């Protein structure tokens, strides 16, 4: 009966779990992944255990050559066996400023057709990845969830902060009206910040901007790159996204598709929950734009206007600017 069990550990495994041993710095770590995970995903799992950032990891495995250097390769495409040990070379990054400046600039946000967006979120393989993330990721609450509040999830880079410009004081790179915005929307929304970088960077940056200890609002939680999942698109290949289903599954008594909205400058981050995403105009070139950027003022009006609705997921957030205008007019004439 157990005769076939040895074949389970070979590359034919796709949706099955694969247990790998990773040696690093004289210790061995057990990492559970799946065949349909990418190398990038494997590196995130290793990062969870070792704190070595994925981009600092070099993975060595007999007879695989440099395929482990390509983050987009799927593990099912590699001849991995559970019995063999992988070696990781890399150091924990202490220099957080380096972390910031090394992060690759993502400017080519691509359009995913409506049909394909539906495909990606409905694909069983992606739903499974989400389920595994729900099992693995722990969200640490900085402040309690509040009953009756909606949920606002915010990206950092180019949404709240221009991470590519340099300044002596990080406050110069903060999107204008950030604190006013957070203060106003906190009346109706719990606030979660979710960045595709490391938790150290999220805490450092939000701390520097004075977001974590502001007397006028509280941040419910911070999420980092480890909470993301890698999905496959037929036309765009493999990319990472931020599945809100993770938050909904961990706090079902507070948050759901009907009361959640997420701001991100990259539309593809919403691909698992397109009805909940609002693509915000990126805040770049802070020195040139910080006197004119009004996005957070306008978005405050939108968020407060829609907070009265029972179900936010019926809205088309692409039209948010018109909604705010109509609403202002309606109120003026009321
Ligand atoms: Mg961003």
Automatic annotation (TrEMBL):
GO cellular-component term (any): nucleus
Protein name, as recorded: protein-serine/threonine phosphatase
Family annotation (InterPro entries): FCP1_dom, HAD-like_sf, HAD-SF_hydro_IIID, HAD_sf, Ubiquitin-like_dom, Ubiquitin-like_domsf, UBLCP1
EC number annotated for this UniProt entry: 3.1.3.16
One Pfam entry name: NIF
Residues covered by the Ubiquitin-like domain: 18-89
Cofactor entry: Mg(2+)
SMART domains hit by this protein: CPDc, UBQ
GO biological process: regulation of proteasome assembly
Coiled-coil boundaries: none
Matches recorded under SUPFAM superfamilies: HAD-like, Ubiquitin-like
CDD domains the UniProt entry points to: Ubl_UBLCP1 (cd01813)
